[in-house]
Amino acid sequence: MCTSIIYDSNGQHYFGRNLDLEISFGEHPVITPRNYVFKYRKLPNRKATYAMIGMAIVKDNYPLYFDAANEKGLGIAGLNFDGPCHYFPESAEKENVTPFELIPYLLSQYASVDEVKDALENVNLVDINFSKKLQLSPLHWLIADKTGKSIVVESTVSGLHVYDNPVHVLTNNPEFPGQLTNLANYANISPAQPKNTVVPDADINLYSRGLGTHHLPGGMDSASRFVKVAFVRAHAPEGKDEASSITNYFHILHSVEQPKGTDEVGPNSYEYTIYSDGTNLETGTFYYTNYENNQINAIKLSNENLDSDKLIDYELLEKQHINYQN
């Protein structure tokens, strides 16, 4: 399970996600430069027009991105969508893109959400695995750009659906329209103290601060996380500078992170937030924390040779850094 958001602060836009799973696959930051050639299963090989950075595993010199953003300020995250998800046989009338190719297919060619929406009209998500050992994951995608626009892309038995996203967050099931409808059940939640409307003429003791959020869900399930992160994001303040903005961004994501031991998915097996990441879509600076190391680490896309044709890998910094003051 996962959570993805786009957060606006002082004209900057930060896009990324929490990755929640029970096991790590060795994911780490990867830059794909402009001259890298993507070898597609059902399309001609294409050289990347735009460089990108994000979290990926690299197999057979191919970057399998969990999420990434390109140098033009377009970002995409793939989140678990088991159940409603459906991929299709090849179509002679469409561009046949496998789901593991979708992030590089879009980020290597397009610069905005509007361009992506046009491109997706001609895309068929075809049911082809990366390999026998690496089967397709059932996914849907949050896509956002530096204008602040975002969309959700879901492939179900009824076809490929593209939804405008007014709340700029995504978790997992149910399908996106159902998640939006569910928000109506929490429409009265507020950061402010509630007004006594239950018995207006009674002197009720508002015994605690924060009673306006009393019914805000806090479970690890996807519907609860959707409501909570939508609320926290909508009420998060803007930062004063880059450091405070990215700090606010991670506080939003960490409001729905999963500690180990709280989400059992099998005997002695627990899902947890393996990493949280985010990219400043204006500057191309990629930030991340992980379960073992909650220091914010940063990689600047512009500091690398983006005209190369070789992938650039970074070690995932997993050792906790503690600042001892005495």
Automatic annotation (TrEMBL):
Residues 2-312 form the Choloylglycine hydrolase/NAAA C-terminal domain. Its EC number is 3.5.1.24. One of its GO terms (biological process) is lipid metabolic process. Pfam families: CBAH (PF02275). It comes from the Bacteria. Keywords: Hydrolase, Lipid metabolism. Pathway: Lipid metabolism; bile acid biosynthesis. It catalyses: taurodeoxycholate + H2O = deoxycholate + taurine; cholate + taurine = taurocholate + H2O. One of its GO terms (molecular function) is choloylglycine hydrolase activity. PANTHER family: CHOLOYLGLYCINE HYDROLASE, HYDROLASE. Belongs to the peptidase C59 family. NCBIfam families: bile_salt_hydro. This is choloylglycine hydrolase. The lineage of its organism: Bacteria, Bacillati, Bacillota, Bacilli, Lactobacillales. The gene is bsh.
